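Changelog-adjacent note: as of this version, every example in the card shows the full chain rather than a window. The one below runs 282 residues end to end.
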Amino acid sequence: MNKKLLIAFLSIGLIVSSCGNKKSGGTDGPGTSDEIELKLNLTKGKKYDMKMVMNSNAEMNMMGQAVNTVNNIEMGLEYEVMDVMPNGNFVVRTTYKKTKMDGETMAMKYSYDSETGQTTGMQGEQMSKSMKKMIGQYTELELDKFGKVIKSTNSDTTAKKSRGGIENFSFAVFPDKKVKVGDTWDSNIEQNMEGTIIVIKTKYKLNSVTNGIADIGIDGVMEIKPGTEGKVSGTQKGTAKIEVATGIGKEVTIDQDMEMEMNDMGMKMPVKMKNKITITMN
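Full-length structure tokens:
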């Protein structure tokens, strides 16, 4: 896969990873005394339009020379509830529908739009080859009520495992007990990204509940698991607006500040990135 796409899906994947395997705990805070239960409550046959927008600024060090890159990526997906299982789990399917991207590296601009088929620049041509293969592909997930992924299956039978990107995003930021405004809870999980095991520690806080929407603060750090090859570190902060009745994430916004090292044909390239990622479902 093109290096820019790989970095993009790594960034998205880290958000996905920070939204699973929750444990309750932390402190109680001021605010309403009404407790709410955050969990998935999906309806079979219901469909949602999912949109992801990522604006990224990166600096790569290539052979001692700093190379600045700007990337803007927009993806449209369909999120469909395929089944509600007897054990209470849900089966959801996320299908890639369209993508649009543009950017600039070393004064060379590129763009690609899957809906119009228009492509500009050599990098745009390269990216279009990868993205064209994704349109129409889907991932099915079995989720429990907390949004934890129990099982995943790709429509692409040649894929050995799920892609680890936005198609796996369950929007689950759920504790295992009722919470009230001011309460916090934590997660500490590991994610294998292209053979590199990354530890993601995240603290969540229920900031408010207004008109059935829970506003949840997200504050996370990421680091390489000791003994694992590769270099990835950074922070991600943001908010999630969750519909209490369904557990659907209406809007998730994350600011990432990351440093990593990529290996391209034996050449190690340090990369610094600042990403702003917004995911919405309607």
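Structural remarks: Residues 61 and 270 are 6 Å apart (CA to CA).
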